[in-house]
Amino acid sequence: MSEQHDILAANTAYYEAFASADAEKMSRIWADQDVTCVHPGWPALVGRPAILQSYRNIFGNPNQERVEPHNAMAMVFGDEGRVICIELIGNAYALAATNWFRRVTGVWRMIHHQASLISMTASVTVPKLSAQRLN
Amino acid sequence: MSEQHDILAANTAYYEAFASADAEKMSRIWADQDVTCVHPGWPALVGRPAILQSYRNIFGNPNQERVEPHNAMAMVFGDEGRVICIELIGNAYALAATNWFRRVTGVWRMIHHQASLISMTASVTVPKLSAQRLN
Q: What's the whole-number mean pLDDT along residues A105-112?
């Protein structure tokens, strides 16, 4: 259970870095190598420079909504593990997020983040996104 | 380079199973444990029963469009590796897909799939999805 606790704490730290727009903390959360990131609606970013720049851009956006994690669930396998959670963005959008961590010298560091839109509230004027929309 | 070749071949096999709507082949592609799947617009699925059922449902949909992988790029780290690629669905949608594999007794088997919508063509009447839409 300690592993579960530790990886969930790393997941919480990720969202705290996001909430406080703390680029330095975000930099420490991400691993030094073998990293990928897929923000919602973006193509995949590969490597620390592109990923950390993307967070600086997001943190510099004055209209960026708060991102709140919910229902976090951890799966650990050896020195890797992922956390699956729901991100609520500004109480208007729900995303399915996968946050993948690797234990590097005892510390869980992020090696992959991907968030996919799963629903919007009825107050949003665009249609609700669903698998059927892909047909 | 052999590892890269092998994991890319596993990725190709995944899309071949999808294209041929082959539930048995899909079952062999997925690992026996520690598996998660996020189809576009769906919440995360955890465990083989839910994941394999989702593919049976997709394969049973007469309107399911063809999914074509492009620009596959592999990153291998020990006995795990991911393939990042673009999925083109019916030439109308582009998705960023992450396909994560684990080497189990010498065979790369899928432990995670997540596909996120990144663009739609102008012929689609709903607005183009982008990060700005989340603000």
A: 97
pLDDT over threshold 80, residue A129: no
The answer to whether B114 touches B104, Cβ cutoff 8 Å, is: no
Report pTM. 0.88
Q: List the alpha helices (DSSP H) in A30-104.
A: 48-59
More confident residue, B120 or B36: B36
Taking CB atoms and an 8 Å cut-off, how many pairs form between chains A and B? 124
Mention every residue, 6+ apart, whose C-beta is less than 8 A from residue A42.
A54, B96, B118, B130, B131
Taking any CB pair shorter than 8 Å as contact, residues of chain A touching chain B are: 34, 36, 38-44, 46, 58, 61, 63-65, 73, 75, 77, 80, 82, 84, 86, 89-90, 93, 96, 98, 100, 102, 112, 114-118, 126-127, 129-135
With a CB cutoff of 8 Å and minimum separation 6, the contacts of A34 are: A102, A111, B75, B77
- Residue A3: its pLDDT value, please? 87
Q: Provide ipTM, 2 decimals.
A: 0.87
Cβ atoms of B115 and B18 closer than 8 Å? no
